[in-house]
Amino acid sequence: MSKLLIAHGGAPTAVINASLYGAVMEAKKSGKVDAVLGARHGSAGILAEDFIDLGALGPEALALLRVSPASAIGTSRTPLEGPDYEQMVRILQKHGIDRVLFNGGNGSMNTCARLSEACAGTGIAVGGIPKTIDNDLDGTDHAPGYGSAARFAARSMQEIAADVAAMPIHVCIVEYMGRNAGWITAASALAREKTGGAPHLVLLPETPFEEERFLARVKRVWDQGQGVIVAVSEGARYADGRLVAPPLFTAGRATYFSAVSQYLARLVIEKLGIKARSEMPGILGRSCAEMVSPVDREEAERMGALAARAVLSGQGGCMAGLRRVSNEPYRCEDVLMPLKRSALRERLMPEEMIDRDRYDVTDAFLRWCRPLIGGELPDLLQLSYGG
What we know:
35% of the residues lie in helices and 18% in strands. The chain is an alpha/beta fold.
């Protein structure tokens, strides 16, 4: 018989526990394992031999696990070196663990791939479950976690737009997460109810920031008398790679950003003399259970179950993923792919999804993204619009 260990890596999402639920339930019904364990706080928990008995969870706890946001077993960004992987192999063997799953983004898939290599010849199968709100994980059409973050971006933009339309006296800069990829910020465009509506500008990391052009576009919209709403990614940068708002601190792959929304709001005030304010949902955008996309939750669960089936059958070195079959009706196939395809490889927004003027997204993006947020946004009444 076997023991399955599941670890989370990187930032949590609103549906990461749905993947955990899917993996646990698949393992329990398989009859192939003696125990299902969780590593408390990811890689750090493995190295500390700190495990949670997930197999002991009763029906009520498991049902709650499926709908709880963030990571119920904890996660981490523990930096690992070569000897750490060798130590993890010894720990797995010590505890009789011969099946391992990592749930995370491209950094976690790199950890997963390296552990899989370190386990070669030991009989330990290691696999990956995709997860990232940033949607920058290569090899899968999209990653679980993104659909809910996209829904939050669209809904928050929809409500901010209603507020600004009611009293259009300022420029509002709304900042969404996204270091190098603008997928979340782009999703705010799903809130747009008419051509020319909010968000009026969409600033992505994939598009170099030009201060004078930005200010000119803001002024053009402002002169229409409807207020201005700008959606911007936290990682907005200039053509030379410099961040528009310099980071507060950088250590390895971890970057602690200053607020680009505050910087741009100040720029508008100083350069254009227009009242401006900034909004930054921050981690609420990745952890809001009220905004979970049912499509996202269902796919997260599927990915956990698929990855579990793979390692339980002895197939290691793979990550579960999604392959888009169609937009209308929406359908994705479950697939397995080599872990190395996603390890430390960032998937940015493709050119065909970014508008030619570089301040918006295309219909191709909207068609691709709309099914992921799990249904249409609610209708809102606004009688003050002109025209």
